[in-house]
Amino acid sequence: MLFAAVGLLILLFIWILFWKMKVKQRMGDKKLIDLLTGTYSSKFFTSKFIVVSVAFAIGVIAAMNPRQAGAADDSKRKGIDIAIALDVSKSMLATDLPPNRLERAKQFINKLINEMPDDRIALVWFAGKAYLQMPLSVDHGAAQLYISSAGPAAVPQQGTVISGALKMSAAVFNAADKRFKSVIVISDGEDHDEAALSTAKRLAENGVMISTIGIGSPEGSTIIDPSTGQIKKDDAGNTIISRLNEEGLKEIAEATNGIYVRLQNSDEAVAAVKAQLSQIEKKAFNDVSVTSFKNYFIWFAAAMFVLLLAENFIPERKKAKA
Length: 322
Fold this sequence. Notes:
Blueprint: H1 4-26, H2 30-36, H3 42-63, E1 67-69, E2 72-79, E3 81-87, H4 101-115, E4 120-126, E5 130-137, H5 140-148, H6 162-171, E6 181-187, H7 195-205, E7 208-214, E8 221-222, E9 241-242, H8 246-254, E10 260-262, H9 266-277, E11 283-290, E12 293-295, H10 297-311
Helix pairs in contact: 1-3, 3-10, 4-5, 4-9, 6-7, 7-8
């Protein structure tokens, strides 16, 4: 886009040349005008324009920060592939787990990731639909950035479609692998679809273990609307109470050799899930991550500065003849 500005500069330059020619014609006697402007050099003027244009183009390249990959850390990791599916529906804003269910879920995920440094993580957010946020990666720092920003706004369509989350999670795995794969679903299970259990069974046939983390309480809690800060009510004006559906989440875990954990203490929940995941045979995979880059920004920036400095020393007038 910025390179297009070079073309605009050229058009502007051509327009100025025509403008100068027209003005010169309107000023009067041509011989007299030539005599008065005899020291003006169109070559110098053109040279100044070329220097400025080249400096601008080099500045665009500098802004793009060209760089070359440096040394890479080619190491062998041994772990499993884990897809974490987080419910970000508005019911996750219920406050029966202070400050709310969603924040406690985020705390759990971060602690789990810290305990599993050799595993590849994928992230899926879901409500009425499921969206892949991050494909399988050992970049746990990036994963935690995604987690920090998770919220209902990420999935506008409301609901709790766990079957969609399971399908999206399964899509991140290598279909050829029949082992080393696990899905962790974190949800209050409210209003989950009937297709969730059948989808879970199909995934289990392909070697996927699904563990479920229940967020909330069976007694339920009110939901705070983030846009108003008020308690959510239905169309009839009744206060909405969101309740944890443990049975549905338990069925999914039991059907796939996973475990169900009701989240109350994050450390205990992480320990339980980690113990379950340790039963999955681990595989070795190469983790090639670039650890450094050689940046060339400074060289292009320096060249641009030198050209702009040089342009100031190019005159527009020729030396007058003695």
